[in-house]
Amino acid sequence: MTESSRTLIIACAVMKDELLAVNHAPNIQIEFLEQALHRTPAKMPSAIQEKIHQADGYDYIVLGYGSCGNGIAGVRAEKRPLVIPKAHDCITLLFGSLQAHLKEHEKVPGTYYLTKGWIEEAKDPLGVLEEYTQRYGRKTAEWVLEQEFKNYKRIVLVTNGTFDPAKYRSRARANAEFLGLAYEEIPGSLAFFEKLVQGRWDNSEFVILKPGEEVTQQVFLTLIGCPPSPA
C-alpha cells in the first residue's frame, strides 16, 4: 500500500472510536456495520459481501473483523485485494496483538471483555438481559444469562485512551455484580488498529486475499492461529 492508495475499511461498530482515533488520512474511508450481526453470524458474510460489492474506486478493502466465530467464512475478494487481521475476534485488536490477547486468556480463560463500544451498543450482559426480558420475560431471561455465563470467572473493562473509564465503570461493575464475577480493568492498545489503517499488513498479522479468493476453511484456520494442513 502506498500513501496515495485509496482504502475502504469495513468494520464492526463496536470499534468505531478506536478506528477513528488512528485514522488521519483522507484517502482512507471507514464504514461500520451494526454489532448485532454477531448474534446472527449467518447474516454476517452477506452483509460484509454487499459492502465489498458496492465499493468502487478503492485500491484495497480491509476488514475490521477477526474470524468472529467463523462469521466471515465465505467472504470473497472481488475486484481488489481483501485484507483481514489474523485475529480470533475484536479482543485481539483491542489488546494490540494476538500474543497479548492469548496471555490474558491463559491467565483467566473464563473472561468476558467489555469496552465503551460494547456498553454503548447495549451488547453487554445487562443489555442482553433487557433484550431477552422483552422476548421471554424476566425470569426466563435471567436463567438464560446464568446458563450462558456459568463458566465465566471475571468481567474485564478494556481501556485504551479513547474514552474516560470513569463514565463506564459503574455499568461494567454492575455487569460483574449481576453475574457474580470478579471485576478488573486492563489497558489495551491501539497498535493493531494503527497497523490496519496505515497499511502495515505484515503476513504474521494479516491475510491478504487476491481478487477472486475467499475465506475458506484453510484461510479461517490461518486467521485463528492454526497452521493450514499440508497439501
**Global structural class:** alpha/beta
How many beta-strand elements?
Answer: 8
Shape: globular
Lateral strand order in the biggest sheet: 2-1-3-4-8
Largest sheet data: 5 strands, mixed
Helical proportion, percent range? 25-40%
Count up the domains. Answer: 2
Contiguous low-pLDDT stretches (5 residues minimum) are 226-231
Strand content: 15-25%
| Average residue-wise pLDDT | 88
The number of helical runs is: 10
Helix and strand sequence? EHEHEEHHEHHHEHEHEH
Radius of gyration: 18 Å
| N-to-C CA distance | 30 Å
Task: Describe this entry's structure for a reader.
The protein is an alpha/beta fold and 231 residues long. It has two domains: 7-91 and 190-223, no CATH class; 98-187, no CATH class. Helix 8 (166-179) links the parallel strand 6 and strand 7 (182-187). The protein has ten helices and eight strands. Residues 226-231 have low confidence and may be disordered. The chain has a five-stranded mixed beta sheet, sandwiched between helices. A three-stranded parallel beta sheet has the order 5-6-7.
